[in-house]
């Protein structure tokens, strides 16, 4: 009730005229004070048209985000930003000398005969340097993720491209793929390339969680609500080992990994990509074993046009 009668400038501080008129329909977060407490509104504007199609105003749909949940999440995001800045500095400082080390190792290796056992030792050094380079690339990706370019996106198309990419891995791992597509899945605003990166990371994680083979299910669906924004859900389920109960709260933390060859950056990067489009990633263990990761996209208030092929 404290928000009733409040002017638009106070309700949506910093919003530009183009967004208020519904010309820019991406969701935005606004912080304001009401009844002596801070709250966050997640809002989206859409144009209001008359019978002839002319714009006569705009409608803004907003929902209040839980102060406790939002505050804790924002603290985590702030910590990720600080950690990302440090990661970028460290990655830059390490990458330069690594180049010199690699060049020297390769030069020394070229001086040995083909059957000299020392060549094998140097090749092992090169492999470890490659692993460090992979970690550095992940650090930079986490610190400075590419800017998202949201546009109308058909998630089924992105899913099919992703599943085609892992076809060989599924066969080698003896994992059976199941598709469960919802009919008439709404379009969402997302960056198709970055979304594919998120899907690919979750698919590969699922395969690696089933070293003895198993079943992998990709499913789509819609959750509709009357009082808050509806969501499009993309779920990835496996029949693997599941997530230990004491670790499920840590899996989205940067650098946390249970694999000896992992960097612990795949999920944090995916979380950042989804945050850019107002989406979320959640994880849970399945009652019968294995785990399910759910990627959720907000459904736009006004249906977007068809995506470009």
TrEMBL record:
Entry's Gene Ontology molecular function annotations: ATP binding; phosphorelay sensor kinase activity
Catalysed reactions, semicolon-separated: ATP + protein L-histidine = ADP + protein N-phospho-L-histidine
Limits of the Histidine kinase domain: 89-301
Keywords carried by this UniProt record: ATP-binding, Kinase, Nucleotide-binding, Phosphoprotein, Transferase, Two-component regulatory system
Documented EC number(s): 2.7.13.3
Parts of the chain that traverse the membrane: none
Gene3D superfamilies for the chain: 1.10.287.130, Histidine kinase-like ATPase, C-terminal domain
Superkingdom: Bacteria
InterPro entries associated with the record: HATPase_C_sf, HATPase_dom, His_kinase_dom, HisK_dim/P_dom, HisK_dim/P_sf, Sig_transdc_His_kin-like_C
Name under which the protein is recorded: histidine kinase
Source species of the chain: Eiseniibacteriota bacterium
